[in-house]
Structure formats: structure tokens, C-alpha cells
Amino acid sequence: MEKLKVACRYHTVGDPGRPPLLFLHGFMGDGRVWLPTMNQLQDVVYSVALDLPGHGNTEADLAHLDFGNLAETVAAFVYDHFDRPAVLVGYSLGGRVALHAALSHPDRFRGLVLESASAGIEDKDERLQRLEQDEATAAKLCATDMRSFLTEWYQQPLFSSLRPETVAGIIDRKAHNDPLRLAEVVVKLSPGRQSSLWDRVSAWNKPALIVAGELDEKYRAQATRLAGQMKRSSLQIVPGAGHIVHLENNAGFVEALKSFLDAYIL
Questions:
Q1: Residue 105's beta-bridge partner residues?
Q2: Measured between alpha carbons, how far is 78 from 93 in angstroms, rounded to an integer?
């Protein structure tokens, strides 16, 4: 397997001497989306948020981007930048990456937080269908400008709980993205290319917090299933939030995260 050539850029908040948390963002985001959460944790932990390959200011050769390589990159970052295992926090795409990394390198992590995440698609035909959908998304990215793409993207039912002003703010923040890089990412990190991890999640025997929004029916069901298969997990359904829990109800998300840290990490 060819290694992913990547120089990860990252954002930090807090004292490096405190327990480390590593945050992974979702598709089209970057590490800055976590800053409101990180700022509220600075008195108790050291927070670091990566810009994943194809996003933000991280430089990467996307030719070898896949979940195996990305899990290796995350685990290597923990080894190189922290003096102890970290708590890994991932949202959506970042949650899928986090789960893959944690199961592949459990020695590098002491806790796992998954927000609006899944362990993958089990059915082979469904995976193929999803890959075809993501290839169509990539074609749109290559054929239009980012603002037009984002406007259409946030009309999906998955984001129906977002207020219009929230969507406008998200579009402003994400309009700088390179659509050609994202077109590669959406295909290479498609759930259609990711092996299902459902038969492995029970192997995770360290603390886990599984978070979903009350208004996100699909991922609420995914979260409930994940929590039911992890031995030391707790499930938190955050009220008044949809898919982007840490944005739609940041206070509720931070409260859940602090309770988890107090119980298992600090």
C-alpha cells in the first residue's frame, strides 16, 4: 500500500500539559469549526483540530488517499505530537475516520467521541449505489462554482433542521474550498469505498461517547446501534439539533463532552 504523503495543518487551544483531545471535522470543513468547542474546554484539556487532506491548509498528495492511509496519518499524528494517548473526536466524515483509526490503532487513543457518524454500509449493493452517488457529486463539484454547489448541498433533507441564516454562514465559511480537491475526497472517502466496521466495533473496550441530534432520525438510529455494540459507551441524543450537533446546539454538545471527560478522562 502506497503511503499518503501529507503535511497536516492544525489548530490548538489550551495547555499542552493537559490531556489531549484530537478533533476531526466533516466533509468540506476544516479544523476551525471546532474552535468554539475547544475554547470552552481550554481549562481542562489540550485540544488540537486537524485540517484533513483535501481541506483547509493541509498539503497532501490525494492520489493515495483512502481510509487505511488516513487512519495511519491520524495515529502517526498522535504519536508525533502528544506524550500520551489522546481522546479522538470525529464528526460525520471525521467520525468515520476516527472510528477507523481507533480500531486500527487502539494503543494511540484512550477515548472515542463520535458525532453523527456511522460504522459504514454493510450491503455490497448499497455501497456501490453510494459510490455512484458520490461520483455524481464529484462531477457537480468539477462543473460548478463552490457557492452554487454549497447552496444545493445544504438543501438535502439531512440538513433540514438548519436555519437559513445558519446555512448562509456555513456557505460563507466554506466557499473558499477548492472544488477539484473536494471532488477527489468525496470519491476516495466515499462510504461506498469504506469497508463496513460493524463487525469490529465491539472490539473497542475503552470509553466512548456516541452523539446524535434529536432531529436527525437517520444518525440517531446509527448512534443507538453503535452505542449498543460498544462495551463502555454512553449515548447522548442532543435536543434541538440535527446532523451538525456541535453547531446547532453547541451548549448541549459541550455539556455532553464535559460530562464524558469528567467521568472517564480527567
A1: none
A2: 19
pLDDT, position 28? 92
Contact 78, 175 (CB under 8 A): no
Query: Measured between alpha carbons, how far is 103 from 165 in angstroms, rounded to an integer?
Result: 38
CA distance 10 to 158: 28
pLDDT tens digit string along 132-167? 999 999 999 999 899 999 999 999 999 999 999 999
The CATH class given to the 6-121+196-264 domain equals alpha beta
Residue pair 37/253 in contact (Cβ under 8 Å)? The answer is yes
- Which value, in Å, is the radius of gyration of the alpha carbons in the chain? 17
- What rounded mean pLDDT belongs to the chain? 93
Q: Which residues of the chain have pLDDT under 70?
A: 1-2
Which residues have a Cβ under 8 Å from the Cβ of 199 and sit 6 or more positions away? Answer: none
Position 2 scores a pLDDT of 60
Fill in the amino acid letter for 143.
A
Helix then strand then coil, % of the chain, to nearest 5? 50, 15, 35
User: What was the pLDDT predicted at 57?
Assistant: 85
Q: Report the C-alpha gap between 66 and 122 in whole angstroms.
A: 18
Q: Do the beta carbons of residue 246 and residue 91 sit within 8 Å?
A: yes
Q: What is the pLDDT of residue 59?
A: 81
Output the pTM of the full model.
Answer: 0.95
Q: What is the DSSP code string of 107-167?
A: GGEEEEEEES-------HHHHHHHHHHHHHHHHHHHHS-HHHHHHHHTTSGGGTTS-HHHH
Q: Which residues pair with 212 in a beta bridge?
A: 237
Neighbours of 255 (CB within 10 A): 14
The domain limits of the chain are 6-121+196-264
